Amino acid sequence: MFIATLLTAPDRPVLESATVDAVRNAWGGSDVIWLDAGVAAEFGLPEIPENRWQVWQDMQSLGIDLMVQKAEGRRKALLLADMDSTMIKQECIDELADEAGVGAHVADITRRAMNGELDFEAALRERVGLLRGLPENVIERVWRDRISFMPGAMALLATMRAHGAYTALVSGGFTAFTWRVAEALGFDEHRANTLHVENGLLAGTVTEPILGKAAKLAALEELATRLDLPVEATMAVGDGANDLAMLNRAGAGVALHAKPAVAAQCDIRINHGDLTALLYLQGYRRAEFAA
After folding, report:
1. Number of neighbouring beta carbons within 10 Å of residue 164
2. What average pLDDT does the segment 251-272 reach?
3. What are the pLDDT digits (tens) for 262-286?
4. Which of 1, 64, 192, 245 has the fewest CB atoms within 10 Å, i.e. is most exposed?
């Protein structure tokens, strides 16, 4: 048994009954269950439709995301999340680079690295090197003035934790930001790279080995083992090439507003919804969201 979920941006609830019914009828689905009026609905299916991706493309043009997944085991007990452009709207290194006067150059490297065009570890070393001499206290100013949470972040963390899930922030960014995000959103733990500081200034280096694609995958497997969970009970979310191994290994790997090369390699692609989409995918109704 499979579940088809249709959803859209909560601040633009354009999902109509006629649209959901048309897809359900074409695929011979079961009765529609509305998880959130105008935002998210689901129905059961006996098998994955052969034209899934064609219908997905049709829905994209309407501002609607469409996912098909196994019905069994949808509610996950472990969440691993990327930070930059996933739990927060920004790329922290780009914001620091802007303060250092090299914002455009670093942002271009970040874009290419996240799209898989550059080796992540080498690209990170290069970008961090360009931050050398930046006062450490700039981090606090960037956090205060430039960083904002992705819509749905609070609801996602609160709801999954309220239902017993363990949550980990696993970032290719920096611990100087992950501890703040983890504390604000309620993650159980966080992992990232550590920037070196000398005499109150960024040294332009990070602690090795760098937390990249392999380390994110290792974190998923390690946490699943520690919590005595099958990998199928995990959910991972991210947007960049360094997230792909983690996304493809998780029971549900969600490409959230991901780079095109990343989304193309994932079965669950959220281009219109926000982080609450991860709750709808698990069958949570809006009324079940924790405060």
Report:
1. 8
2. 96
3. 999 999 999 999 999 999 999 999 9
4. 1
Neighbours of 153 (CB within 10 A): 22
Identify which of 216, 219, 149, 155 has the alpha carbon closest to the alpha carbon of residue 177. 149
Distance CA(261)–CA(159), nearest Å, equals 30
Predicted TM-score (pTM) of the model is 0.97
> CB 50: neighbour CB atoms within 10 A?
8
Give the model confidence (pLDDT) of 95-130 as tens digits.
Answer: 999 999 999 999 999 999 999 999 999 999 999 999
Token pair belonging to 269: 């692609």
For domain 1-72, give the fold: Alpha-Beta Plaits (3.30.70)
Nearest-angstrom CA–CA distance, 7 and 222: 32
Sort 207 into a burial class: Cβ within 10 Å, 0-12 / 13-18 / 19+: exposed
Catalytically active residues, by annotation: 82, 84
SS3 label, residue 188: coil
All residues at 6 or more sequence positions from 137 whose CB lies less than 8 Å from its CB, including other chains:
200
Architecture of domain 76-291: 3-Layer(aba) Sandwich (3.40)
What gap in Å lies between CA 50 and CA 218, rounded to an integer? 33
Q: Which residue has the tokens 């079940």?
A: 288
Helices 138-146 and 175-185: angle between axes, nearest 10 degrees: 40
Per-residue pLDDT at 291: 79
**Which residues in the chain are classed under CATH 3.40.50.1000?**
76-291
Cβ neighbours of 75 (radius 10 Å): 16
The DSSP 8-state label assigned to residue 86 in this structure reads T
